[in-house]
Amino acid sequence: MAAVSSPGTELETLGAQESVLAFAIPMEREIAPLSDLVSLWRLWCLLIKVRPAITNFATPKAGLLGGLASLLAGVRCRIYTLHGLRLETASGLKRIVLVIAEWISCHCAQRVICVSPSLRARAIQLKIVGEAKTVVLANGTCNGINPQRYMPYMERLAAANNLRQELNLPPTVPVVGFVGRFTRDKGIPELIEAYVRLRPRFPDLHLLLVGDFEDGDPVPRAIRDRIVRDPSIVKAGFVRDTAPYYSLMDVLALPTYREGFPGVPLEAAAAGKPVVTTNATGAVDSVIDGVTGFIVPVSDSQALAAALERLLSDPALRECMGAAGRERVVREFRPDTIVDALVKQYKYLLQSRSDRTQLPVTQSGWRLLVKRILDIAVSGLILAILLPLLALLWVLVRLKLGSPVLFRQLRPGRFGVPFTIYKLRTMTSARDANGEMMPDSARLTKFGEFLRRTSLDELPELWNVLRGDMSLVGPRPLLMRYYPFFTEPEKARFFVRPGITGLAQISGRNDLSWNDRIGLDLDYVRHCSFARDIRILFLTLWRVFQRDGVQIDPGAVMLDFDEERKGRSANSVPTCHAANN
Questions:
Q1: SS3 state of residue 348
Q2: pLDDT for res 370
């Protein structure tokens, strides 16, 4: 096992273990293009040297640089553990950069482990990663929580009493606690505002802050001054062991703006303390509202103060919620549960990649990266150039064929994961007197034939390429219902992204038999290369110009793939393959 991190005492401690190789590679926390390039180079060199079977990078910067380095080094099994989304509280150019960085990190990985259900849902909602690629280990969290470490045993309570004296914290005063960095994103301004609101109701209230200020995302100057000067705000600084501090608190407050899955609320719960947090991504998973604590809206100091007041005023409620929180941690967030789930993911990916490499696929990491860069550049350029033509076609389709203008359909993508393909509509929605859809021959107009003959109906697929659903070159995406009828060796055609065009399209298109088409798809997967993609693109343009090999005659039929594999006779009623768009 090898561990990679920026230099620090934690890495040195980890490296002292005989079973772990520790490598220090400096990485800046904030955006630093020049330093990041140096870190990327060092990571790539390290991976080339170590040749790991699997990589698992976490944090936004490590996920980006480590994911790119793993892809370029040809690591077969790549995992990105998504601990949170910094972009949620960013704006302007910084947000755009963070969105792109997270998108790249997720697309460099074969599996994205999200540390909480709400984080997974948010990442999918933002279209940073597809649903099929993501997973939450067990009930979430980064590494689970060892409840024994925080439970209020007699020895820990004695240590807490000594700590109380060191901090000059009176023994009978109500205490609201906070553990973390003193930044805006952690909700420190709202916490101080809530504290000020509570002081008239609780004159002897104390605020125990375990952590310290940071230069990144600093709190307002007035808030900082209040923390430093107020004698009832106790600042403990960063500590190695937070367990004794929870025993000094009556309630923990975490008014955060964003999280992945915060460990602090679970630590406090293990110590038997109720928690007030926000409905921010990640934080909302750490508390069961009304059971182990309260959830309040983000940036709402008034609601935060009200929830804290309710708990400070009711010792029985605090005791009940604390006990419920402790029980939940013991039941749902034990470290061994998370480790077992992670090991299962490792085994699955290693076995899956082993199965996939039985076919000699020549798509190494750097080839995939070059291919993706080519896809984005060419499809983006074509869309920009043909935007007026697309607008004109949009109007013509709407006038001649009706609405909707776009034809949408689920197709199997890479590894069989479904995606929605986009094309221009080529048939009307005409129905007979009984309300039944009329045959394809009656609905395919001359204008629709023209769109198919010239392949103009496929122009919207360039958007699929930009999204990462498809590539410019690859096996054509077929119907979802065909997928179960592929044999295991034939499913190798799904090892790459489906393409707008492919080897089969320049070798006969719809004139080929199914076996010939699949054979050409497999040949492309075995021997794909940058030069071959360029050749296929140029030959595709030539074929389209010649209008060669396109089956647009509604009277011509081709037995569907599933019908053929079921072994039905040619006398059964076939479906026109052109009707599948």
A1: helix
A2: 79
User: Measured between alpha carbons, how far is 579 from 581 in angstroms, rounded to an integer?
Assistant: 5
Contact by Cβ (8 Å): 23, 3 = yes
Burial pattern 10-33, b for ≥16 Cβ within 10 A else e, equals ebeeebeeeeeebbebebeeeeee
User: Please, which residues have CB within 8 angstroms of residue 398's CB and are 6 or more apart in sequence?
Assistant: 405
Structural tokens at position 553:
């005659």
Phi, psi of 272 (to 5 degrees): 85, 25
The beta strands (E) that lie in 83-228 are given as 111-114, 134-136, 175-179, 206-210
Question: Token pair for residue 38?
Answer: 């140096």
User: Integer distance in angstroms from the first to the last C-alpha of the chain?
Assistant: 50
CA 97 to chain centre: 16
Q: Which of 534, 547, 562, 536 lies closest to 476, judged by CA? A: 536
Once rounded to an integer, what is the mean pLDDT over residues 414-426? 87
Overall pTM surpassing 0.90 (yes/no): no
296: left (phi over 0), alpha (psi -120 to 50) or beta: beta
481-507: pLDDT as tens digits: 888 888 888 888 888 889 998 888 888
DSSP designation for 185: T
**Are the C-beta atoms of residues 177 and 145 closer than 8 Å to each other?**
no
Q: Is the omega angle on the peptide bond into residue 147 within 30 degrees of 0, that is, cis?
A: no
DSSP-derived pairing of the beta strands 406-412 and 418-424: antiparallel
Orientation angle between helical segments 60-72 and 33-50, nearest 10 degrees? 50
Would residue 300 be called left, alpha or beta, if left means φ above 0 and alpha means ψ between -120 and 50 degrees?
Answer: beta
| Amino acid letter, 379 | S
Complete DSSP assignment for 496-531: S--EEE-TTGGGTGGGS-HHHHHHHHHHHHHH--HH
> What is the distance between the alpha carbons of residues 407 and 464, in angstroms, rounded to a whole number?
13
Give residue-wise pLDDT tens across range 133-155: 899 999 999 889 999 999 887 77
Domains, the chain, ordered by start: 2-144+337-356 (3.40.50.2000), 147-331 (3.40.50.2000), 365-580 (no CATH)
In sign, the C-alpha dihedral spanning 480, 482, 488, 491 is negative
Backbone angles phi, psi at 360, to 5 degrees: -70, 80
Q: Which amino acid does the sequence have at 256?
A: T
Which residues 6+ apart lie within 8 Å of 146 measured at CB? 334, 335
Highest mean pLDDT among 4-13, 202-211, 238-247, 562-571: 202-211
- Residue ranges of alpha helices (H) inside 153-205 are 154-166, 188-198
324 touches 292 (CB < 8 A): yes
CA distance 183 to 100: 24
Q: Per the structure block, which two tokens stand in for 284?
A: 């909302």
Rg of the chain taking only CA atoms, in angstroms: 30
CA–CA dist 89, 425 (Å, integer): 40
The Cα–Cα gap between 170 and 157 comes to 15
Q: How many CB atoms lie within 10 A of CB 541?
A: 13
Locate 310 and state its tokens: 């309710």
Q: How far apart are alpha carbons 120 and 107 in whole angstroms?
A: 15
